Amino acid sequence: MTFEWPSLLWLLALVPALVGAYVWAQRRRKRLALTYASVGLVRAAIVPGRLWRRHVPPALLLAALVLLILAVARPAARVTLPSDHRTIVMAIDVSLSMRANDVEPTRIAAAQAAAKAFVQAQPPDVRVALVSFAGSAAVVQAPTRNREDLAAAIDRLELQRHTAIGSGILTSLATIFPEDAEELTAANSLSPSARSGETGRSLDDRTRPEKKAFTPVPPGSHPSAAIILLTDGRRTTGPDPVESARRAAERGVRVYTVGFGTAEGASVSFDGWSIYMRFDEESLKAIAEATRAAYYHAKSGAELHKIYEQLNAKYVLERKHTEVGGLFAAVAALLAVLASALSVFWFRRLA
Predict the structure, then answer these.
(1) Strand partners, 90
(2) Is the Cβ–Cβ distance between 285 and 241 less than 8 Å?
(3) Are residues 329 and 287 in the same domain?
(4) Most buried of the four, 9, 60, 252, 267, by CB within 10 Å?
(5) 79 Cβ partners below 8 Å, 6+ apart?
(6) Would you say residue 315 lies in a domain?
């Protein structure tokens, strides 16, 4: 445990002084009791068990004071709290290779089942969006908390030609940052020289208001959004996935990547054809590393389901360094109320 204002802990030095004052007051009280004519009458008036009772309310008040001093010093500790990742974008590869049946019943069916289970496991306050990508990327379902709409959107996924992993990342980012959608969408079709800024500016652009300059943030620092990207292939079109990941890193968004199928390469069959396939594991690892996320590899539907369970645990609970002064103050107030209640109940007076 640490303290934001440790200099205030000197107030704890008052505690021994208060204890000493209480002991002095008790001794003085005993000396005054000896002035009675008969000590036997005093002993007879004392109810058994009352001797220790009178010390309980002051002890509780002293404990409350200690907790209040600690609360003022603003204690902080690593505690497990609900995650701040409140918007999750699932980007799913819908290239024709997802029709392969090396994963029963098919790759796309296994991916859909695992995705729906992941969606249902999310806390009610988490919004989930669905992006599909093949030759291009599209938002199938905007961020929503409606689990039925998400399940229906997952069922609507349709397979297409090619694989544009970079487009899937950029479209997911545009879903998280709608104010940057125009810029991110344009990056899907720009050439490398255009993306580096070697393009002119049209006359029409001069009439538009100047947009606030973009300021990059540390990778992985975005507190309320993340992307989960699943693919079974490698880029065949669209922007460079690693370059797209850098755009996500500049915005602090983590991109968790899941390679589905065989990274080493294998022949799979669908529609009567046998095709040798492997996904680009190196790029997926680079995407995750650039955004301070993690890479996972699933060879079957069961493994994919386990990976989604792990990702769900990441989003639901996180250990964070959090200020807990409010908890100290609450316990202190409870002890003070308890001390007063016992004093009234036992002695018919406040402590």
Answers:
(1) 130, 228
(2) no
(3) no
(4) 60
(5) 319, 320, 322, 324
(6) no
